[in-house]
Amino acid sequence: MLPIHFPEDFTEQTAAHIVLDLETLSTAPNAVVTSIGAVALNKYGQPIADGELHMALKLNHQITTRHTDINTIKWWEQQSQEAQAGSYAALEHLRWHVETALQAFSNWIHLRTDMKHVRVWGNGCSFDNVILASLYRDWHITAPWKFWNDRDMRTVTGLIPSVKTLPFMGIKHHALDDARHEANQLSQAIQRLSSLLTTSSAATQATTA
Questions:
Q1: Residue 154 pLDDT > 70, yes or no?
Q2: A Pfam family this protein belongs to (predicted)?
């Protein structure tokens, strides 16, 4: 399988892709973030060791400065207890202070990859990445990825719609389970693209031989 446009020193245990999922109390760019889920894949689209992260965040400091939406809150009240317990209604002692969570997420990325090259995937070009970057700015912390490496899962599923048929495993609207599902979609897409590139390369070589 061909790696796609990554430095040669990226090994099978280097995170080339971070698939991000946020649960929030709004869809605005400055939404209150209730939980962060992330899954790391290598340049071949394969999971890496210790490549998952989930944190529920404290809300008190966010509520005063960031956006909430009554319709989103009502929507959360209609979701499963399991989904709420991982996010909207997580027990207080299980929640991370925002600053601590952001630093932990940054450290998690720094230990697994080069922030200059890692691609961060959100589900929607105006949602996960934009909201998390906004949260970093509000707490005056540098986000651990470069803006030019923002990527959108909806582009992937639009170009390769067959990955949308992959079965969902886990709890819907739990940030980590959602990130796992999207990482599986991305993994399948990378493998299919790599296969196409390999086939195309072989055909070109055969033609010019």
A1: yes
A2: Rv2179c-like
Q: Report if residue 123 sits inside a domain.
A: yes
Please compute the mean of the pLDDT values over residues 165-171 and round it to a whole number. Answer: 97
Give the tens place of pLDDT for each residue, 18-38: 999 999 999 999 999 999 999
Contact 132, 143 (CB under 8 A): yes
Examine residue 37 and state whether it is found in any structural domain, yes or no.
yes
Question: 96 in a domain, yes or no?
Answer: yes
* Alpha-helix residue ranges (DSSP H) falling in 78-161: 81-85, 98-110, 128-138, 153-159
- Token pair, residue 126, equals 């105006």
- Assign residue 50 the CATH number of its domain: 3.30.420.10
DSSP-derived 3-state class of residue 111: coil
Please count the other Cβ atoms lying within 10 Å of the Cβ belonging to residue 26. Answer: 18
Residue 79 in tokens: 């979701």
Per DSSP bridges, beta strands 33-41 and 17-24 are antiparallel
What does the DSSP assignment read for 153-173?
A: HHHHHHHSGGGGGSPP-S-TT
What is the total count of domains within the chain? 1
Q: Please name the amino acid found at residue 135.
A: L
Residue 98 domain-assigned (yes or no): yes
Cα separation, 122 vs 143, whole angstroms = 15
Q: Name the pTM for this structure.
A: 0.91
